[in-house]
Amino acid sequence: MANLVVRWHPDREERILLCAHYDTLPLPMLDPVDPEGTFVGANDGASGVAVLMELAHEMPSLPCNYGVDFVLFDGEEYIFEERDTYFHGSTHFAREYAAGRLAPARYRWGVLLDMIGDEDLQIYQERHSMQWSDTRPLVEEIWAVAERLGVREFVPILGHRIRDDHVPLHEVGKIPCIDVIDFDYPPWHTRDDVPEKCSALSLAKVGWVVREWLVGVE
Rounded to 5 degrees, what angle do the CA atoms 96, 111, 202 make? Predict the structure, then answer.
């Protein structure tokens, strides 16, 4: 397995972490017809990566007070049943960061993008992100940006408590990282998680909010 790291303005010690997982589930384990068929993962995996890939075009000239690292995690869900271990890539990254083995950096904030391509997009405030005292201000700040832009898909209501890559980043790496996720996605972990179930407009709206937040973050 391998994490992929892209560093913008590597000379800046104060940094922001934007991340997603680029692996996909080996099999569509919750598919009611063929749980051993092909899993594409158009939303669960590819959507967050797609937003970062598009945002990369603007990063060299985007005004931001921080250096920014894009990190794409491997092994987020290399599982074959629920009891298997998740989050291999982010846990490794968090341990390396905590041990000081990464390039000199201090992450002021972290934002995880996961399952943000749903054509019926509704992004509620993830419970871990709201209940950790060091990340709640970031949630409120990003949802305020969305409100200012009129992106109503960011719903200022408490949502699910999600086990995701932000948990080891926060608990092991001590990085104040939140999860931006729409977990209410019927094709989740089935063969139906394909591009036809996703929306380019949803991706664009999330990317717009993240971009505008980066420009204004202090």
Answer: 140
The model's pTM: 0.97
* CATH code given to domain 4-216: 3.40.630.10
Residue range 140-155, pLDDT digits in tens: 999 999 999 999 999 9
Residues 6 or more apart whose CB falls under 8 angstroms from that of 114 comprise: 20, 21, 44, 47, 48, 164, 165, 179, 180, 181
What single letter denotes the amino acid at residue 182?
D
Task: Give the Cα separation of 164 and 147 in Å (integer).
Answer: 25
Copy the structure tokens of residue 13.
């010690």
In this structure, the strands spanning 67-73 and 4-8 are antiparallel
Boundaries of every domain in the chain: 4-216
Length of the chain: 218
